[in-house]
Amino acid sequence: MVALVAVGVGTLLSVGSHGTSQTTAATLPAKAKPTKPKAAPRPPAGSTSINLAGKAAGPAVPNGFVGLATEFWDVEKLEGTNPNKPDTAFEHLLEGLAPGSTPYMRVGGDSTDWTWWPVPGMKKPPWVHMSLTPNWAAVMKRLTTDTKAKLMLGIEMEADNPKISNYEASQLSKRIGVKNIDAYEVGNEPELYYAFPFYKVNGQKVRGRQANYNWGGIAPDWSKMAGSLPKGGPALAGPGWAMPNALPHNPPLMTQRNHPATVTLHTYPLKAARCTPGQPPLTEADLFKPSSLQGLAGVVGQWTRQLGKYHAKLRAAEMNAITCNGDPKISNSFGPALWALNILADYVGTGDSGVNFDFEPQSSQHLIRAKQTKSGWTVQVNPTYYGLLAFGQAAPAGSQMIPMPKLPAGIIGFAAKTKTGQTNVVLTNTNAKAQTINVNVPGAKSGASLRLLSAKGGVSSGGPVTLGGQSISPTTGQLAGKPVSHPVTRTSKGYSVPVPGNAAAIVNVG
Question: 400-509 has which fold?
């Protein structure tokens, strides 16, 4: 969990922290049955009308669009150390983000350049924090077997030793299976290799590169390391660029003999005080500023347009609300859940091929924690997970976004048309006061229903959080409880949608 794009407060800036430490039905327990529809919450006086006049357009939500990102050393904390006794609750959490689609998991980050697969006859290098083993690979293979997930796995670059990287990739391919690995991501935030110590020798700090190591040095180094990997293996990705606003007009990496099929980028809208001391404290409100939504997506869009010239894809392989392991006051509050729900829609419009939400189980930005007991595994999620889950249900793979007209102050949202022709409208109220929005969906003649994503206590609270009246079961990792939906009144102005304060209304039309 590393780089940062600080765009939520003030001007766009970047600060690195390298080296810091299936369908809706598929997510429901078998016994869960919808309750009898209840009347929608009483709308407040006064309302605003919007008209979805545009047709669905732009890129469709890619297969495996929403995924997770974690470190090599955290995999066994989530899935377990025994491949014959996997953490099925965690597996269900991963599957829940990709309804009717392929789950996606990126394993890398800081651990990419501090992990190796022991090379026969070679002494363990001083920079190694973790040695991969056949058992670790078996655990990873079990995860892909159970969930049908695809993996993006980090490959060491900072040591600049092709033999080490080649052996690591060959062992991962052999033991996990090439078909289960979508890509090898070579390196992680190489522009910060000179900024933080790689390892120590006799108490002396050794840096991976000299000062001002930039594209001019990174591009040929990356090409050399990528070219050293076994032929016929997974596709190439990288380099996990930490500063997306530092975009060269023609990315030098793409003109090398070996270049990535997918360029990976790290995007975080807010800086953490511990990354840049002396900065004013952050609040959940900073996540709902245009710079944290449309501004951040605009930077990603610039990259996709540049890479289009080279027929390469872009993936935000590492993303969350705050970098530097998060902020204990914000990372586990409900605000990032509402932000995540909406920023994902913005990223779809940029042509981004996918997003992996980054987390470390023992940090403030844990997202998911797992615990093994005598009776089995249990999991805990923070509110952000519900935002990812809600997006997957509102805009499953194949959906296209419908242009959203201007919304009232404090209301953000998006509309999507699914492959089955259903129109889903998401309206997020970042105000404390409830509002009613009349939504006109041209051509819609059927009824509509509404589900709420909300948390007791508002955006600053940690929950409890519910999505359509349900919460994640600690023992199954799936939504549990009686699902609650409300019929939406249809008037001459459209569907009358009451949106409580500090909540998101998800309207299904058709």
Answer: Immunoglobulin-like (2.60.40)
Q: How many CA atoms lie within 13 A of 413 on its CB side?
A: 32
Antiparallel, parallel or unpaired: β 355-358 and 368-373? unpaired
Contact 318, 356 (CB under 8 A): yes
Q: Could you tell me how far CA 48 lies from the centroid of its own chain? A: 32
- The secondary structure of 370-435, three-state, reads EEEECCEEEEEECHHHHHHHHHHHHCCCCCEEECCCCCCCCEEEEEEECCCCCEEEEEEECCCCCE
Comparing CA positions, the residue from 217, 265, 273, 210 lying closest to residue 241 is 265
Instruction: Report the predicted TM-score, pTM, of the whole model to 2 decimal places.
Output: 0.91
Q: Is there a common fold for 68-394 and 400-509?
A: no
Provide DSSP, 312-350. Answer: -EEEEEEE-SBSTT--TTTTTSSHHHHHHHHHHHHHHHH
Give the Cα separation of 368 and 374 in Å (integer). 20
DSSP state of 222: H
User: Tens place of pLDDT for every residue, the chain, 510 residues?
Assistant: 444 444 433 333 333 444 433 333 333 333 444 444 455 545 444 579 999 988 999 999 999 999 999 999 999 999 999 999 999 999 999 999 999 999 999 999 999 999 999 999 999 999 999 999 999 999 999 999 999 999 999 999 999 999 999 999 999 999 999 999 999 999 999 999 999 999 999 999 999 999 989 999 999 999 999 999 999 999 999 999 998 888 777 789 999 999 999 999 999 999 776 687 888 888 899 999 999 999 999 999 999 999 999 999 999 999 999 988 888 889 999 999 999 999 999 999 999 999 999 999 888 889 999 999 988 999 999 999 999 999 999 999 999 999 999 999 999 999 999 999 999 999 999 999 999 999 999 888 888 999 999 999 999 988 899 999 999 999 999 999 999 999 998 888 899 999 999 999 999 998
What is residue 85's three-state secondary structure? coil
Cα angle value 160/166/169 (rounded, 5°):
120
In the chain, domain spans: 68-394, 400-509
**Residue 474 contacts residue 380 (beta carbons within 8 Å):** yes
Task: Tell me if 459 sits within 8 A of 284, measured CB to CB.
Answer: yes
Tell the CATH superfamily of the 68-394 domain: Glycosidases (3.20.20.80)
**Strand-strand pairing, 448-455 and 486-487:** antiparallel
